[in-house]
Amino acid sequence: MTHLPETLIDGYRNFMAGRYASERDRYRALAREGQEPHTMVIACCDSRAAPETIFDCGPGELFVVRNVANLVPPYAPDDNYHGTSAALEFAVQSLKVDSILVLGHGRCGGINAALSSDTAPLSPGDFIGRWMNMVAPVAETVSQNETMTESEQQTALERISIRHSIANLRSFPYVKERESKGELTLHGAWFDISTGELWAMNPETGDFSRPDID
Ligand SMILES: [Zn+2]
């Protein structure tokens, strides 16, 4: 009698016979020595845009926090609960990752909700509406741009919000400090779910282009 959904049990069985079996030594070393991930990834909860899959990473390589629409909130040391900020603090202060990547993706439901004037079933009191308020000012500017189709607006906001999150990363004093010492680099990327294309942000211009992988 299992207390987990059958699809998860099936997957776990495959994991133990496949990936765990072939990476057993790595798991044991990671357990013994602790983790030392090179990169923190801030990604969306979307089930189609898993960073470990996209970057073909094994255990111990990526420190990942996922939230709706891969947003980084501004530094706000107050009495609220800040899950993303807590993960960021741990990655930068304790794990001392070399880089942070904000990974956005196409067809993002959170971004779509921010762009849509019809927010049903969301209300201002719901969590998604409040969370997406972080990009509300730019969402409004983008949605009023009549030279773009709806799909272009969506992609534009997905990419603008990545730049916005990177700016918010720099509002955390320890991120700014480690970056200025050359110990930490900040990156943005956008993943097209349909084609698998990855677009990387140019840190100077904020423009996105496809890296040469051939
Ligand atoms: Zn998303």
Keywords:
single chain; 214 residues; alpha/beta; Beta-carbonic Anhydrase, Chain A; six-stranded mixed beta sheet; 10 helices; 15% strand; binds zinc ion
What value does the Rg take, in angstroms? 19 Å
Q: What is the end-to-end distance? A: 49 Å
- Overall 3D shape: globular
H/E series, N to C?
A: HHHEHEHEHHHHHEEE
Percent in helix = 40-55%
Name the CATH architecture of the largest domain. Answer: 3-Layer(aba) Sandwich
Spatial order of the strands in the main sheet? 2-1-3-4-5-6
Structural class: alpha/beta
Query: What's the CATH topology label of the largest domain?
Result: Beta-carbonic Anhydrase, Chain A
Overall pLDDT metric: 94
Q: For the record, what is the CATH homologous superfamily label of the largest domain?
A: Carbonic anhydrase
Name every ligand kind in the structure. zinc ion
Number of strands: 6
Overall number of domains:
2
Low-pLDDT segments, ≥5 res? none
**What can be said about the biggest beta sheet?**
6 strands, mixed
Percent of residues in beta strands?
5-15%
- The number of helical elements comes to 10
The CATH class of the largest domain is identified as Alpha Beta
